[in-house]
């Protein structure tokens, strides 16, 4: 298949952009499952510019008998990044107004009364929680869980991880962004968009589903009080201020601390009938609603109802993501083949359409391992054969992701009673022209790609609104996002659409 040239647009001004004060500076701590950044965001003349001042790797490590996050190292990188942010701003005569933190969801650290971590946090990629699923469902029926929480079933959800803990008395569970905020401010809070990913959050009431705590043997005070995006968590502890060079009165503001919540807030949509794909290590595919969908059909389709900014519902499903591609590259590099991504994508784009596809969100692909081998094995299980060539494996991954996106969006339209005209791809995957074109083909919808840094942009926009630097609701935030972003548009070629089940 040839890769048609997409339509590129300059920053698109859709309607009046809210007035903003010049040189307002905010720091975003934006950490994914494979890397992290500290980014400065400046609002000037109605647009946001982003400057990465520190970038660092992140990943699970074998530690204390499981796959865990080395939180000490992670937090040290956050401090290094904030120090760099302070120096960068000071050199330009700027003052950082606040800090916002977003990370992946689900995982947590246990903190005792003295404020110490009892152990490094487990990663969702550890398999310990699988055995706890049946134990939880024996105590609370799965249909009852969904009717309250509206959460997609994933074996690594927080509720199942907590069921493996031996002793929770005297500790609190802080989700990863809340744990970072606690280490910065000394304040224990749980931000609501991330709380909604735990399986212990009432999707309608917007509060902890405490009815489930007792049957699961969880202490009622296991989680810290909730805060909403836009609330101030606290100011920096003296030691943190001294270490970073930031003023002690620098605020830490709650944003959409689940990175997808911040990314969706920055989707540069002008139309009501839009869908989004936040494409990175995982792909989050869905639509934005004003109420959850909690019926049986939604549960059987395994859709999730996670809270978003301004009381919205992120009605979506997790689909496999570019983790498959990055793991293949890691395996090939370990075997002595360091293959640059641009060349791989060019070779993959030259292959004919209609090749083999896999279920990209199969749990078999969750843990680190030899990914090319697992993908070829999955293709064999379908009765097909995948050539042992990197380009063929890459094309299989991207065809499979596009097909998964198409199926998921069709389900979202049906279950939510929504008609989608435009699909916005944000995050790292928006740079992958082949993936974007394949998605347009598979969905038979216009795809608009960008911004790449949607999560950081949403994080900054929410801080700016909290500071009063920008005003308005999500439409106004999205207009600013659109004005700040170079977008690329892809039109479908239906003859190449995927028609699988």
Question: Can you describe this structure?
Answer:
It comes from Arthrobacter terricola. It holds the Pfam family FGGY_C. One of its GO terms (molecular function) is rhamnulokinase activity. By secondary structure, the protein is an alpha/beta fold. It contains 16 helices and 20 strands. It has three domains: 24-259, ATPase, nucleotide binding domain (Nucleotidyltransferase, domain 5, 2-Layer Sandwich); 264-320 and 402-496, Nucleotidyltransferase, domain 5 (2-Layer Sandwich), CATH 3.30.420; 323-397, no CATH class. The strands form five sheets. The protein has an eight-stranded mixed sheet with strand order 1-20-19-18-14-15-17-16, sandwiched between helices. A six-stranded mixed sheet has the order 4-3-2-7-13-12. It has helices spanning 71-91, 132-139, 142-149, 158-162, 176-185, 192-195, 238-244, 259-265, 296-300, 323-334, 341-349, 371-381, 390-416, 433-443, 454-467, 474-483; strands at 7-9, 24-31, 35-44, 47-57, 61-63, 66-68, 96-102, 108-112, 171-175, 190-191, 226-227, 232-235, 251-253, 274-279, 283-289, 304-307, 313-319, 422-426, 446-449, 487-490. Strand 2 and strand 3 form a beta hairpin. The longest helix is centred in the last third of the chain and has 27 residues, at 390-416. Helix 11 (341-349) crosses helix 13 (390-416).
Features:
single chain; alpha/beta; Nucleotidyltransferase, domain 5; 8-stranded mixed β-sheet; 16 helices; globular; disordered C terminus
Strand percent estimate: 15-25%
Give the class from helix and strand content and strand pairing: alpha/beta
Low-confidence stretches: 1-5, 9-22, 497-501
How many beta-strand segments? 20
| Tally of DSSP helical segments | 16
**What's the architecture of the largest domain in CATH terms?**
2-Layer Sandwich
**Cα Rg:** 22 Å
CATH homologous group name of the largest domain: ATPase, nucleotide binding domain
Overall residue-averaged pLDDT value: 93
Number of domains: 3
What kind of sheet is the major sheet? 8 strands, mixed
Helical content class: 25-40%
Shape: globular
CATH class of the largest domain: Alpha Beta
Q: How would you write the strand order of the largest sheet?
A: 1-20-19-18-14-15-17-16
Distance between the termini: 22 Å
């Amino acid at each position: 298949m040839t890769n048609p040239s997409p339509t590129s647009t300059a920053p698109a001004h859709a309607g009046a952009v809210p007035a903003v004060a010049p040189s307002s500076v905010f720091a975003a701590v934006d950490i994914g499952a494979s890397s992290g950044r500290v980014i400065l965001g400046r609002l000037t003349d109605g647009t946001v510019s982003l400057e990465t001042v520190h970038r660092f790797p992140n990943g699970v490590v074998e530690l204390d008998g499981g796959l865990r996050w080395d939180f000490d190292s992670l937090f040290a990188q956050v401090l290094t990044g904030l120090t760099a942010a302070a120096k960068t701003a000071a050199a330009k005569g700027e003052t950082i107004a606040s800090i916002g933190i977003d990370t992946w969801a689900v995982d947590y650290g246990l903190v005792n009364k003295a404020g110490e971590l009892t152990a490094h946090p487990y990663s969702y990629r550890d398999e310990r929680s699988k055995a706890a699923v049946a134990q939880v469902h024996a105590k609370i029926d799965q249909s009852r869980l969904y009717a309250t929480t509206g959460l997609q079933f994933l074996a690594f959800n927080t509720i199942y991880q907590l069921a493996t803990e031996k002793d929770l008395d005297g500790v609190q569970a802080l989700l990863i962004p809340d744990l970072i905020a606690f280490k910065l401010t000394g304040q224990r809070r749980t931000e609501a968009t991330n709380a909604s990913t735990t399986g212990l959050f009432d999707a309608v009431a917007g509060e902890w589903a405490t009815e489930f705590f007792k049957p699961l043997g969880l202490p009622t005070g296991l989680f810290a009080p909730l805060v909403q995006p836009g609330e101030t968590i606290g100011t920096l502890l003296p030691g943190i201020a001294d270490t970073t060079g930031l003023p002690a009165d620098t605020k830490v503001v709650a944003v959409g601390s689940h990175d997808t919540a911040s990314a969706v807030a920055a989707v540069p949509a002008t139309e009501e009938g839009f869908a989004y794909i936040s494409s990175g290590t995982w792909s989050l595919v869905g639509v934005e609603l004003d109420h959850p969908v909690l019926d049986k059909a939604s549960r059987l389709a395994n859709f999730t109802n996670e809270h978003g900014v301004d009381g919205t519902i992120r009605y979506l499903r997790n689909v496999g993501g570019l983790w498959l591609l990055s793991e293949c590259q890691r395996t090939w590099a370990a075997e002595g083949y360091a293959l640059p991504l641009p060349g791989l994508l060019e070779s993959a784009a030259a292959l004919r359409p209609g090749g083999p596809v896999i279920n990209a969100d199969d749990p078999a692909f969750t843990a680190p391992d030899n990914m090319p081998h697992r993908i070829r094995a999955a293709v064999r299980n379908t009765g097909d054969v995948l050539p042992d060539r990197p380009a063929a494996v890459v094309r299989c991954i991207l065809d499979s992701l596009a097909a998964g996106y198409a199926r998921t969006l069709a389900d979202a339209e049906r279950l939510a009673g929504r008609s989608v005209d435009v699909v916005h791809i944000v995050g790292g995957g928006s740079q992958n022209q082949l993936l974007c074109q394949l998605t347009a083909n598979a969905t038979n919808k216009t795809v608009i790609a960008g911004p790449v840094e949607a999560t950081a942009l949403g994080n900054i926009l929410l801080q700016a609104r909290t500071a009063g630097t920008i005003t308005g609701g999500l439409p106004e935030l999205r207009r600013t996002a659109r004005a700040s972003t170079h977008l690329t548009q892809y039109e479908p070629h239906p003859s190449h659409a995927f028609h699988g089940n």
